[in-house]
From TrEMBL:
Binds 2 magnesium ions per subunit. The active site is at E109. It is an enzyme of class 2 (transferase). Belongs to the DNA polymerase type-Y family. GO terms for biological process: DNA repair; DNA-templated DNA replication; error-prone translesion synthesis; SOS response. InterPro entries: DNA/RNA_pol_sf (IPR043502), DNA_pol_Y-fam_lit_finger_sf (IPR036775), DNA_pol_Y-fam_little_finger (IPR017961), DNA_polymerase-Y (IPR050116), DNApol_IV (IPR022880), PolY_HhH_motif (IPR024728), Rev_trsase/Diguanyl_cyclase (IPR043128), UmuC (IPR001126). Its main location: cytoplasm. The lineage of its organism: Bacteria, Pseudomonadati, Bacteroidota, Flavobacteriia, Flavobacteriales. This is DNA polymerase IV. The keyword Transferase applies. Its cofactor is Mg(2+). It comes from Flavobacterium luteum. It comes from the Bacteria.
Length: 361
């Protein structure tokens, strides 16, 4: 007889087409129409698409040119990230009315651990329903939810009844749910891995469950193999972390016209460094590893990194290091996007100090 790990009550809340839904909420003329946030019919990439646009195959990360080809009636709007962040904060405040164990994954989704909650409600299903209703009543947007014993299953379940729905996978249903689940719906199994699994005769959770740990580690590596072996058995011990630590801070810019010479890239790079400095100083963050992101006109991408012996956050040092990386090797093609990110941050050091103090005292 199989036994599950000790159950927690985890909710995964996922906003429905968040960026596009905010735009439709703020502009009634856009409601019910195919909408793309970001990009345009000439260049750029779609950041988000409304459900009306998704029916035509328009998705995030699709080029604006293709999106317009798929959906000639598509309306493009510029993203307003400050507005999305404002709405996201309001949604998050609703979460905190129920639990302090909230782990945001992005502006539009988060995990909540409601095993013990501020409302004293033993039903995670009813809590999720109440949260979704409050988001609709107080903000005007719809959300979907997944509810189960761990983060993995809750994440998968939240996608089941989208949009504006929820699904609960009770402890007694976990094994049957996972065994019947198509392998392409397993969170963490991307398109390439799905194809590899198909080649190995793995099409469902039950097929995955039939494979030994040794088999999975041989074909997918120790870390991934162990992950697949456990999650299909309902084992995923990652706790909801309310104090998630920033591991990387970035800024980037897509050009109106492709740039073909490094000389013309220096000034934009300087501006990007200034934007990054503002973000770093706002949150009092510094880091050691500077990464230059380059996206070429054919949409291929390259990164170049350099780790310094000291923490930096100053725009001059950010630019100097990124500019050095710019000339590190010749460009493969004309460039449509440049970005600078900083990781290996001092936030990780601060966390280690806090943990050490807890052990000492």
């Amino acid at each position: 007889m199989q036994e599950l790990q000790q159950s927690r009550k985890i909710i995964h809340i996922d906003m429905d087409a968040f960026y596009a839904s905010v735009e439709q909420m703020d502009n009634p003329e856009l409601r019910g129409k195919p909408l793309a946030v970001g990009g345009n019919e000439i260049r750029g990439v779609v950041s988000a698409a409304s459900y009306e646009a998704r029916k035509f195959g328009v998705r995030s990360a699709l080029s604006g040119v293709l999106a317009k080809k798929y959906c000639p009636e598509l309306i493009f709007v510029k993203p307003r990230f400050e507005r999305y962040k404002e709405i996201s904060n309001k949604i998050r405040n609703i979460f905190y009315d129920y639990t302090d164990l909230v782990e945001p994954l992005s502006l539009d989704e988060a995990y909540l651990d409601v095993t013990e909650n501020k409302k004293g409600n033993p039903s995670a299903t009813l809590i999720a329903k109440e949260i979704r209703q409050r988001i609709f009543n107080e903000i005007g947007l719809t959300a979907s939810a997944g509810i189960s014993i761990n983060k993995f299953i809750a994440k998968v379940a939240s996608d089941y009844n989208k949009p504006n729905g929820q699904k609960t996978v009770n402890p007694e249903d976990v094994f049957s749910f996972l065994e019947e689940l198509p392998i392409r719906k397993f969170y963490g199994v991307g398109k390439v891995t799905t194809e590899r699994m198909y080649q190995l005769g793995i099409f469902t959770g039950l097929d995955l469950k039939s494979k030994s740990l040794e088999f999975l580690e041989t074909h997918f590596g120790a870390k991934s193999g162990n992950f697949y072996f456990n999650v299909v058995r309902g084992i995923h011990n990652s706790a909801v972390k309310s104090d998630r630590i920033t591991k990387s801070v970035a800024a980037e810019h897509t050009f109106n016209e492709n740039l073909s010479s490094e000389i013309f890239m220096e000034e934009p790079l300087r501006i990007i460094a200034e934007q990054l400095e503002k973000r770093l100083k706002k949150h009092k963050i510094a880091g050691k590893t500077v990464t230059l992101k380059i996206k070429y006109s054919d949409f291929s991408q390259q990164t170049r990194s350099k780790t310094l012996p000291y923490f930096i956050s100053d725009k001059a040092l950010l630019f100097e290091t990124a500019n050095e990386l710019l000339y590190q090797e010749r460009m493969k093609n004309s460039v449509r996007l440049l970005g600078i990110s900083l990781n290996n941050l001092n936030t990780e050091i601060k966390k280690q100090v806090v943990v050490q103090l807890k052990f000492d005292f």
